[in-house]
Automatic annotation (TrEMBL), chains A, B:
The protein's name in its UniProt record: Geranylgeranyl diphosphate synthase type II
InterPro entries in the record: Isoprenoid_synthase_dom_sf, Polyprenyl_synt
Family of the protein in this entry: Belongs to the FPP/GGPP synthase family.
Keywords from the UniProt entry: Magnesium, Metal-binding, Transferase
Gene Ontology MF terms: metal ion binding; prenyltransferase activity
Species of provenance: Marinilabilia salmonicolor
Oxidoreductase listed as a keyword: no
Pfam families: polyprenyl_synt
Gene Ontology biological-process annotations: isoprenoid biosynthetic process
Cofactor: Mg(2+)
Length: 323, 323
């Protein structure tokens, strides 16, 4: 069994142990619910894998769970802010309970995440907390930029890339870096792990944006064109808005404002405009920039060769599918 | 100048230094707003005072600010949950901005609180974090119980006391205990400080409940009878509900359900029922239990005599007025 699969088992076992305390139920039932919905457990799996690069990963187990709890806290609060009613094919917490429940249960999850981080060995605790504090702050900043961008059609490529870096990529980088620190990696190694993770996170988000329009339903696992229908600010839309001129730009803006249309018409028309602006190639080019830089940094990394290979396989797998 | 006043100055200076970073404004402007609204800075002042009991308080400065940031985070999120539109005579964040802003700005404040806690010297960092994690969790539990209680008329005295302990008193206890740890106090001393603070917090909350009905407008600084008008579950109401029988109990319950009334009529009628159930004396008795136990524990404490006296004065002052 690949190491990363072994880690997923450890993670599921540990997550089940968070089922205590139980009272007040109004606070803790939603926490259990969210954590039981599954998901790929990407961040703790990466954390344990990068710790294992240097030998013993045991010190990383609880902080790795902390990263997963933190990630789920962000989903819980983001879902309130975005008024999303479904997450992992189940009703979101604010749908199943209410907004107040989702706010408070999210808060206690953020505290729990810190509690698990604080289980790091004291010798590296300040270092781990420094990475985690910085990252957690950045994730909030990313969410704020994301919400700000929803209100405007005037977003630069640089601004968009910085937003997805903050909202998504830094936590992948931090998961690997924290694992590296807890596994006993050098400063250089944990810094390379961070860069690898951050760039993979960027490549993954760009791939996700691209798949929404140019993927096959099968590979994507989500309905094609959904981002187009919801006017989601993706790399594709931002690029098209920045590159199209005159009538084409007007047409794209009018589709963003139109309230009544057939879904297939909007998807076809916007895709056509994307094609005109060559966003498919530009997105893949940008994605590959991040992806190859990630692999370069992985190459420079020390540690166990087999585990490094697992990280490489993992990076390739992630590009082949979506979240 | 009394030490505690000196500390308040240090606290205000440090809080102004939190005015960075500035972008995204949507995230950080509300944080600055909340922290600029003032308040007594009770928790950091107590933290620094208890650190000073044992000599050098400098290690406690940043964690003390963390306690204030945490407290303000709880106010921000509680105000959303309670739909309060005014705090410290100013519009609340969700009123001035919106709910999403209040959620996310609160989140980043909780992270900031941890960042400041993490500035504790590494030798005591795990100990400080343990107290803080436990306390932060309990404050969320207290808020949940408080919200649960709002939906029922069936709350025991024990349940109520446990709720205010979690929601309010433990953070006062923790502020003193964390100060004690950071100042270099013994385990015994920091444990006594915790008990002192928790009991003072309980006495203070009971006094606040009592003043709403039996205080003078002048001493209270808030409108008399406001808790009665909003059906707030206070120690007085809980006690009356548990002690009244037959017609008196029915009358009290009917006042809780009535939608149309003159404010002065409801205040007069409910106060009359409180008198019948002897809740004034019972509340003062309970308050004094906590207050005198607090002073007893303060007595047993080691450290600088003058600073101990300041803590004692502070406890008496707190009883003389309200939040």
């Amino acid at each position: 069994m690949a190491k990363i699969e072994e880690f997923r088992q450890i993670i599921e076992d540990q997550i089940r142990m968070l089922d205590r305390p139980v009272r007040p139920e109004g606070l803790y039932d939603p926490v259990k619910y969210v954590l039981s919905l599954g998901g790929k457990r990407l961040r703790p799996a990466l954390c344990l894998t990068s710790a294992a690069l240097f030998g013993d990963y045991s010190a990383a187990v609880l902080p790795a769970i902390g990263l997963e709890v933190f990630h789920n806290f962000t989903l819980l609060h983001d879902d309130i802010m975005d008024q999303s009613s479904v997450r992992r094919n189940q009703p979101t917490v604010h749908e199943k309970w209410d907004n107040n429940t989702a706010i408070l249960s999210g808060d206690v999850m953020l505290i729990k995440a810190y509690e698990l981080m604080a289980k790091s060995p004291v010798g590296v605790l300040p270092q781990v907390l420094e990475v985690f504090n910085k990252t957690a702050t950045e994730v909030c900043e990313g969410q704020q930029f994301d919400m700000d961008f929803e209100k405007t059609t005037d977003v630069t490529e640089e601004g968009y890339l910085d937003m997805i870096r903050l909202k998504t990529a830094v936590l992948i980088g931090a998961s690997l870096k924290i694992g590296g620190i807890l596994g006993g990696g050098s400063l250089r190694d944990s810094s390379l792990l961070y860069k690898f993770g951050q760039d993979i996170g960027m490549a993954f988000q760009l791939q996700d944006d691209w798949l929404d329009v140019y993927g096959s339903q099968e590979a994507f696992g989500k309905r094609i064109g959904n981002d187009i229908l919801t006017n989601k600010k993706t790399f594709l839309l931002i690029t098209a808005l920045n590159r199209l001129e005159n009538d084409s730009k007007k047409e794209l803006l009018s589709w963003l404002e139109r309230k009544e249309y057939l879904a297939e018409d909007k998807i076809a028309a916007v895709t056509h405009l994307f094609d005109e602006a060559e966003v498919s190639d530009l997105t893949r080019k940008k994605r590959d920039e991040f992806f190859f830089r990630a692999l370069e940094n992985l190459e420079k990394l020390g540690g166990n060769k087999d585990i490094k290979n697992e990280l490489q396989t993992f990076a390739h797998d992630l590009m082949a599918r979506a979240r």
